[in-house]
Write a structure and sequence with these properties.
It is an enzyme of class 5 (isomerase). This protein is of the alpha/beta class. 40% of the residues lie in helices and 13% in strands. The protein is built from nine helices and seven strands; from the N terminus they run αβαβαβαβαβααβαβα. Strands 1-2-3-4-5-6-7 form a seven-stranded parallel beta sheet.
């Protein structure tokens, strides 16, 4: 999956195809109509795997209201709009972002879980998967969900095939480390995987803390056979930076 930061979201579909990708994932396409996004996706010929939940004004740091009491109706509206876009582009997964909070109380956790239960029921009706992602506090200070154990506990309690874990190895390394053990432990709950090097979130073959040749093997060994999102910031030219894929023995 592929994104070019300097291009608009509509242009990225064609650029991904040009680079050789068969599939993409995107954030919510703010500022673009459903028909515009659908046309751009279909014209490119790529498959769409995942779309982020509509979150509010990202320029103001708004990353969702899933954990905010009193905003349940806004969450439900955002979920339905995102489902409409997901169906239009054929995406089967929705990343349900939790939001940022200045202070976390028990009511935030109750609201978060209640909203996810609601989402599980709605997503079951349309056969879509919702994924929740712990995000480290270095990259996104005050993001609500930054605990893998708590995320898994919620997933277990909801007990739905339509709510699973989004496992970004970049965040896993920042939050937990011990990657081999944690990949194995978390894999039964995983619905989507993303990768980036630590600490600078660049290509997997750039200098950093993670041996991605080994980690990609571990993902496969532990049963993950679905798409892997490349949620990284290219060091230089996006297309040139993709050479790591062939160097690792894979192909687009």
């Amino acid at each position: 999956m592929f994104a070019v930061i300097s291009a608009t979201i509509l242009e990225r579909y064609a650029l991904a195809k040009e680079a050789g990708f068969k599939a993409v994932e995107t954030g919510f396409p703010f500022g673009h109509t459903l028909e515009q996004v659908k046309m751009a996706k279909e014209s490119s010929g790529v498959e769409q795997i995942l779309i982020n939940l509509k979150t509010g004004d990202v320029n103001k740091g708004e990353l969702g209201v899933t954990a905010q009491p009193g905003k349940e109706n806004e969450f439900k509206e955002n979920l339905q709009v995102t489902i409409d876009y997901a169906k239009a582009v054929g995406a089967k997964k929705i990343h349900i972002m939790a939001g940022k909070l200045e202070k976390v109380t028990s009511s935030n956790w109750e609201t978060y879980e209640d909203n996810l239960k609601f989402a599980a029921d709605v997503l079951k009706q349309v056969n879509l998967l919702g994924v929740i992602e712990p995000i480290n506090q270095h990259s996104v200070p005050k993001y609500f969900l930054s605990d893998y154990e708590r995320a898994v506990d919620i997933i277990k309690r909801i007990d739905s095939a339509h709510v699973k874990l989004q496992l970004d190895i970049f965040h896993l390394q920042h939050i937990c480390g011990d990657l081999s053990y944690n990949i194995k432990k978390l894999m039964p709950y995983v619905g989507h995987v993303q990768i980036a090097q630590v600490p600078n979130r660049n290509e997997p073959d750039t200098p950093g803390e993670i041996n991605y040749k080994y980690i990609l093997e571990q993902l496969e060994t532990n049963g993950y056979t679905d798409w892997i999102g490349l949620e990284y910031k290219p060091v230089g030219n996006s297309k040139d930076g993709l050479k790591w894929i062939n160097n690792f023995g894979y192909s687009l």
